[in-house]
Amino acid sequence: MIQVTNLVKQYGNKTALQGINFTVEKGQILGLLGPNGAGKSTTMNIMTGYLSATSGEVKIDGYDILTEPMKAKKLIGYLPEIPPLYLDMKVREYLNFVAQLKKVKKKERKAQVEEVIRMTELGEYENRLIKFLSKGYKQRVGLAQALLGSPELLILDEPTVGLDPKQIINMRELIKELAKTHTIILSSHILSEISAVCDSVIIIDRGKVIAQGTAEELEEHLGDKDALNIIVKGEKEDIDMAASECGYFSSYELESKDDGQWLIKAEIVESEEDVRDQLFFYFAEKKIPILNMEHETKSLEDVFLQLTGKENEVK
Question: 9: which strand partners?
């Protein structure tokens, strides 16, 4: 459905995108994740034809956005971070206006406007001036205009920014519903947003794609499979000596827990086999009971911080 090849964007001496590459299959929800200023919005603006690329190529269902813009744009519905609303127009009036701009056939216009109002649950507000709507309903109007023209692809730039928790949940549910009939690209710097709605994730930082896959694949691939968290019970000196002499740890730390329990955070020496059985019997011989033992896993948030190193920018 979408192919982005070696996308580069320069503003004078500043390079905003440094060779972005990815593909999106039909029916997918792809999440573009990255800190503010990573290049997400620039990528989307080029994909929709709002910006030109310095070099590279974007194809929408085989149509080049640069050389065949009319054919490519006809397939795209775009919701920018700040929706393009005319605040002094009523909701239905505005949607009729957008339908005309998108050259929706006159005989189909009324039905399409009715349908997007239904899908975005704007019926109660269709005759209200847009300037009097809440932030959440303004976002819905913005999404409704993106849906006009029956585009196959929806590109949503930070669709939940500024919404309250209830509005965020409602918007997520709406996006999931739309995914049944559309391919969707969604950008966000909110990790829970990406995890909640996206089939696959691309992490962008400083204008480069630094990781991609499903959220689960990224967590599994970048999670430290050679680290164990082991809870044991006993005297610290005995545990420390056993840990230092066992031969299975390349390094470890001890952390005090309640009731004489200790957490061993251990890096495991490289091995082809799972060493947990050997560790269990080893500590049993030392008369140090193991109460719990598990691999350390990393969340998508951990992966994001590990890759971007931008802890202060994650809100």
Answer: 17
Per-residue pLDDT band at 297 (split at 50, 70, 90): low
Average confidence (pLDDT) over 5-20: 93
DSSP 43-107: HHHHHTTSS--SEEEEEETTEETTTSHHHHHTTEEEE-SS----TTSBHHHHHHHHHHHTT--HH
Helix (H, G, I), strand (E, B) or coil at 297: coil
Residue 160's pLDDT is 86
pLDDT given at position 164: 83
Side chain identity, residue 288: I
The number of C-alpha atoms within 13 Å of 77 and in the hemisphere containing its C-beta is: 22
Contact between 199 and 29 under an 8 Å Cβ cutoff? The reply is: yes
Q: Dihedral through CA 284, CA 287, CA 292, CA 295, nearest 10?
A: -60
Which contiguous run of DSSP H or E holds residue 155? strand 153-157
Beta carbons of 283 and 182 less than 8 angstroms apart: no
**Cα distance between residue 76 and residue 102, in whole Å:** 11
> What confidence tier does 302 reach under pLDDT thresholds 50, 70, 90?
low
What crossing angle do the helices spanning 106-119 and 91-101 adopt, rounded to 10°? Answer: 130
pLDDT of residue 311: 43
Rounded-to-integer distance, Cα 11 and Cα 314, Å: 26
